[in-house]
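Narrative of activities, Objective 1.

The group set out to show that a structural description can be obtained from nothing but a protein's sequence at a throughput compatible with the screening campaign. Below is one input-output pair from the validation batch, recorded exactly as produced.
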Amino acid sequence: MSPTSETAQGGRRLVIVESPAKAKTIKGYLGPGYVVEASVGHIRDLPSGAAEVPEKYTGEVRRLGVDVDHDFAPIYVVNADKKAQVRKLKELLAESDELFLATDEDREGEAIAWHLQEVLKPKVPVHRMVFHEITKDAIQQAVRNPRELNKRMVDAQETRRILDRLYGYEVSPVLWKKVMRGLSAGRVQSVATRLVVERERERIAFRSAEYWDLTGTFSTGRAGDPSDPSSLVARLATVDGKRVAQGRDFGADGQLKTANVLHLDEGKARALAASLADTRFSVRSVESKPYRRSPYAPFRTTTLQQEASRKLGFGAKATMQVAQKLYENGFITYMRTDSTVLSETAVSAARAQVTQLYGADYLPEKPRVYAGKVKNAQEAHEAIRPSGDRFRTPAETGLTGDQFRLYELIWKRTVASQMKDATGNSVTVRIGGTAADGRDAEFTASGKTITFHGFMKAYVEGADDPNAELDDRERRLPQVAEGDALAAEEITADGHATKPPARYTEASLVKELEEREIGRPSTYASIIGTILDRGYVFKKGTALVPSFLSFAVVNLLEKHFGRLVDYDFTARMEDDLDRIARGEAQAVPWLKRFYFGEGGATGPEGSGAADAGNGDGDHLGGLKELVTDLGAIDAREISSFPVGNGIVLRVGRYGPYVERGEKDQEGHQRADVPGDMAPDELTVEYAEELLAKPSGDFELGTDPVSGNMIVAKDGRYGPYVTEILPEDTPKTGKNAVKPRTASLFKTMSVDTVTLEEALKLMSLPRVVGTDAEGVEITAQNGRYGPYLKKGTDSRSLTDEEQLFTITLEEALAIYAQPKQRGRAAAKPPLKELGTDPVSEKPVVVKDGRFGPYVTDGETNATLRTGDSVETITPERGYELLAEKRAKGPAKKAAKKAPAKKTATKKTAAKKTTTAKTAAKKTTAAKKTTTAKKTAAAAKKTAAAKPE
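Output recorded for this entry:
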């Protein structure tokens, strides 16, 4: 019986979606008879530690959560934080006549639906309900036309999950042992990190080249107007027919890589400019070509992330968070898609708006069709577009802030995709003349005019390079003809230097991963988030900068797990996984080859074992064998990088440092390297500066009162001064004496602080006096700066010197004022960044309790590693605020329920027998042994979650 006929007969239907927001929206479209509840994401997954694995499993299964010896069977457990929700779903299902599994229509959503069915064990009819937009028509259509669960999609997701678990849980412990605890490796995250590291290596190896050319301003002698300028600017192209070298002609080593070009240095360029001063120039040729530009395809996941980064300053993660809200509230179609296809309904809606907003002249005769270009594109989704059969304009949505801006971007792109081409003309003018020294010089100028803007009226795509010229930029040249005489108003010599390859931004890294066919669009945001959170990469402005730690990690992986971070191998794995999803290969033989090696694939011919390798010889090696041979990995070697002059950069447990010579040998030097330093900035000269700085303990002199030596030290939490107590001073017990210690002020350093200043610091806290009620007031220097303390009432001081100079009267005056909430509120901003494009409020940088942060008065975002007050740009400030808004308000920690007290029954007499006592001891011993084993296994896996 179909769900439509069931609905007609009445009954109660349970619809399960993934998120509460989606549940709320859908409930309004279904009406009575339907109960809509959320699973709140995955309800079941592989165990996160051995403690979650049922006791019947032993050995490797407890560690991995996957039974590698029995066809890689996964061990699934209900997430601890989802048990209450599962109980609720079971209760609702018990009262229902039908179950609709309405999770997202992709691999992950299909897997969630399957897990729900496996855990809930429904005894009523089950339907798989799918939709790609949350509108009334789409939801009601989905209810009327359900389908069966797609087990092939579920198997594909399960294979990926198992593969990522094996990769992460086997390789990550190698990093813990050889680099640092808490690190992780992953099938795509490690490759993404390698890309960022390789780009930095290119920057380190890069050698700049200097080259010069000439720029000429030429006049037609006519009075100009906007449509026909009187002059044009042209660049020197050839001298005596030989092309003048430009940046593209030099290699990364700073040497010319192009033959038969003229390399001008400053002297030659200036001499040529002088020689051309009185030259008569004329137009040698005018080449005109028609210009045509077609609109961009509608957004898919990656192009949306790229454009939101370029135009809105959103990181990939923030983009997906905002898009998720727009989707769940019914404003856009599903945001995880590889497709650029629009449905007939969407095309009609877009064409209608083109006519309405821009006129019939901007509408092409036939609808535009965009074919998918992404290899192995997943799922039958549409492109990302406004939802419904009539697109709401941004003004009609009622949206605000980040959601408004992202919706507007999607709406403009979708409408523009159904508009006419932009047309115009492109012109190249060649201008020549003979210099005083007889050399022939030819200049070129290029122009572009747009006669019909077409789709550009609605939308123009951004660029990763901030200096790039956008499509709608016009360059008008004077109307000249071959043979026309031109006067040189000015000829200047211009010097240039080649630049190292630009670092990746989130947008360009997403583009690179997609072009290399590594990973999937739906995972890119989480991958970039992972490498940022792990400390492998940090941001400077919008650029992704690898940390020294990531150099050590990538070095280890390249040398000992080369295939796992090989770009082609990772892309082939993606192909193999897609072949499994299409039923062209089998998961178990493929996993056996990957984990155990060539000998691991068993089974009769045609079972899929051969298919698993895609016919690529031994391209799937034995992961298990790789991770068992750790003796060949020299931890010191993989974390050491030569700088020059005998200096080595090492990645240590507490951060990077430079070192010269061997420890405990004469002449040994060592100095910490700032954690937020970009690796390409660590030159030999800078390393020498670091090593030349004084380090260790600085003896300042003897305290005239105690006779103890006072020293200055650079500690883990900053510079400080302390006294050296006599060796016989008791250090423990009730007579123990602790040395006086005090942190240095921000204006002080260990190598310049004096004995007098140190004694003043160690005299704190200072008693200022007592108030009228006899409560003592003290001046103290704390973690967050100088302050006054009276009982439990603290008041911040604006100047560190006040600690020694403030009087009782001044202190009482401060306490007479209402207490200011937040130290930074009374301080002037450290920097002004401009007006936030979302809140339209001024953005400033302030000094807060936990360091500098940006704020627009409503949202606060702490500066990250790589950001500084001096270098932060307005765009970076807006990006930090956008990411913070996308996260939403911080969740309050749930209060722990008080422990239940077990009531003890009093008995008149003890009836415990020896046998019972012995049995209890035996049971207790077994429990202890099991607990110890569980704890030991959990300890190995709980330090970090490798996936």
